[in-house]
Design brief:
Largest sheet: 9 strands, mixed
Shape: globular
CATH topology of the largest domain: Rossmann fold
CATH class of the largest domain: Alpha Beta
Number of helices: 15
Low-confidence stretches: 334-348
Bound molecules: xanthosine-5'-monophosphate
Distance between the termini: 48 Å
Radius of gyration: 27 Å
CATH architecture of the largest domain: 3-Layer(aba) Sandwich
């Protein structure tokens, strides 16, 4: 059993960030609902508990509360912001309602360096975001630091190993926050920090084998990072009991279907059923121009094709999906986050009722960059591991107007040139998505002595953290120049290239 830290989530916007910070320190952690019973934490052997911040006030009736036995587990507890106030209130201290919110940078005066502020300056900036604050710490606690507004900016009880921070050590605006977390994890909790992808692979393989036994698993492979990593991991765990279905809808990037087939079918030797359904999708899209109608047709056709391929394999007990940790957290706090929309075409939601599966979601605990690291650990090629997000309806939402075989081929060629040029940039990893869009207008040009009247391609590149908001990416002029020249010279039917300078909001990343 590896060491792990439980983070009880009181709903702060920073809760996920705490998890990120711990995992960056190679300490495995999980964000759990605030009401998780202490007995469960004990049974699962949590090395320590962190109480996150949250938007509520501990002074309000019905505000999120934790099991009081959390403080009696005998493991260290660190309360952050709301978590500190809750700790103070439950252990006999006094919390005062704040008239104003203190928000922003404050100067922390360290009163006692041990254990959390060891080797850090006596004065340092910290990030505050709170209304209420601790007026008197519970018996057994001493003040470890204060600010002008906050006499109890940090408190601790060494005997019980309980600590509280009024500010946020997890955000970048607290420059020494990472060191404070180090001190808590490595000095107070005695963590080893030995959580590695190799360990994750070993443990996942063991638990997948145990759960799946002799049964079989079906996976819809899309060629995207998540389903690819699930395929590689399951293949390692259960080999021939894994069956993958890859629906080539004819709307993928140039040679992408072949790449998936090569990697999973040939190199990995996975039982991969490729359904070449491009003509069917195109047939159903004929004459359709409305973007939502395109999505509906593609979604419905995908389910139909996938179902047929699944039935052909025979009875299967499990269905694997590439659900990631942010999706899990988001579905717990339904804020309508981005992943819900991003995933809508990938997860096989609308399967007919007689096809019943138990779900296997081996990436549920991982963040996206961890999934990429896992993919590398499993030997997936970089071209797959570092792929950009790609919409389920594929090039259909990048071909404005009717989707035809000819227009798909034109866009594939233009897009290939964008990919090649952008991939060559050292800043490649900063770009969230980059692609070409085929516009339904024609413009006049000249080629040699001849007047041309051909199509326009828009190039789009954006930076983003999660797809929810995005900024247009400042591609170097030289790159833009090469992209434009290559598309105009090499792609038949295109005589003009424009660059999209819009950000999201108010625009969206895709054009449809
Ligand atoms: P927008 O265009 O809404 O896109 O700013 C946000 C992110 O979602 C992707 N996207 C989709 N993904 N099915 C998908 O699976 C869709 O219908 C879809 N529409 C947009 C888009 O590529 C971007 O990453």
């Amino acid at each position: 059993m590896h060491e792990w830290i439980a983070i009880l989530d009181f709903g702060s916007q920073y809760s996920q960030l705490i998890a990120r910070r711990l995992r960056e320190r190679q300490v495995y952690c999980e964000l759990l609902p605030w009401e998780t019973p202490a007995a469960e934490l004990r049974r699962r052997g949590a090395r320590a508990v962190i109480l996150s911040g949250g938007p509520a006030s501990v002074l309000d009736d019905g505000s999120p509360d934790c099991d009081p036995a959390v403080f009696e587990l005998g493991v260290p507890v660190l309360g952050i912001c709301y978590g500190m106030q809750l700790m103070a209130k439950k252990l006999g201290g006094i919390v005062r309602r704040g008239e104003d919110r203190e928000y922003g940078l404050a100067t922390l005066d360290v009163l006692r360096a041990e254990p959390l502020f060891r080797h850090q300056p006596e004065q340092m900036p910290v990030w505050m975001s709170h209304g209420d604050q601790v007026e008197l710490a519970p018996p057994g606690f001493v003040a470890l630091a204060r600010t002008a507004m906050c006499p109890w900016a940090a408190m601790g009880d060494d005997r019980r190993r309980l600590y509280g921070l009024q500010f946020h050590p997890e955000v970048v605006h607290t420059p020494h926050g990472g060191e404070m977390l180090d001190r808590f994890l490595f000095d107070v909790c005695g963590c080893r920090g030995d959580w590695r992808m190799a360990t994750f692979v070993e443990e996942s393989v063991r638990s997948l084998r145990e759960r799946i036994g002799e049964d079989h698993v079906l996976l819809g492979l899309s060629g995207g990072v998540d389903s690819s990593v699930v395929a590689a991991l399951l293949h390692r765990a259960i080999g021939p009991q894994l069956h993958c279905v890859f629906v080539d809808n004819g709307l993928l990037r140039y040679k992408e279907a072949e790449q998936v087939e090569d990697c999973f079918g040939r190199a990995f030797g996975i039982d991969l059923r490729v359904v070449r359904a491009g003509p069917l999708f195109l047939e159903r899209l004929r004459g359709v121009e409305d973007p939502e109608e395109k999505r509906r047709i593609i979604g419905r056709t995908f389910i139909e094709v996938f179902t047929e391929a699944a039935r052909a394999i025979g009875p299967i007990r499990f269905l694997a999906q590439g659900t990631l940790y942010p999706d899990v957290i988001e579905s717990r706090h339904p804020r309508g986050g981005p992943s819900a929309t991003i995933k809508s075409h990938h997860n096989v939601g609308g399967l007919p009722p007689d096809l019943k599966f138990e779900l296997v979601e081996p990436l549920r605990e991982l963040f996206k960059d961890e999934v990429r690291a896992l993919g590398r650990e499993l030997g997936l090629p970089e071209a797959i591991v570092s792929r950009q997000p790609f919409p389920g309806p594929g090039l259909a939402v990048r071909i404005l107007g009717e989707v035809t075989a000819e227009r798909v081929a034109t866009l594939q060629q233009a897009d290939l040139r964008v990919q090649e040029e952008v991939r060559a940039l050292p800043s490649w990893a900063e770009i969230w998505q980059s692609f070409a869009v085929l516009l339904p207008v024609r413009t006049v040009g000249v080629m040699g002595d001849e007047r041309t009247y051909e199509h326009v391609v828009a190039v789009r590149a954006v930076s983003s953290l999660d797809g929810m908001t995005a900024d247009w990416y400042r591609l170097p002029y030289e790159t833009l120049d090469r992209i434009a020249r290559r598309i105009i010279n090499e792609v038949r039917g295109v005589n003009r290239v424009v660059y999209d300078l819009s950000s999201k909001p108010p625009s969206t990343i895709e054009w449809e």
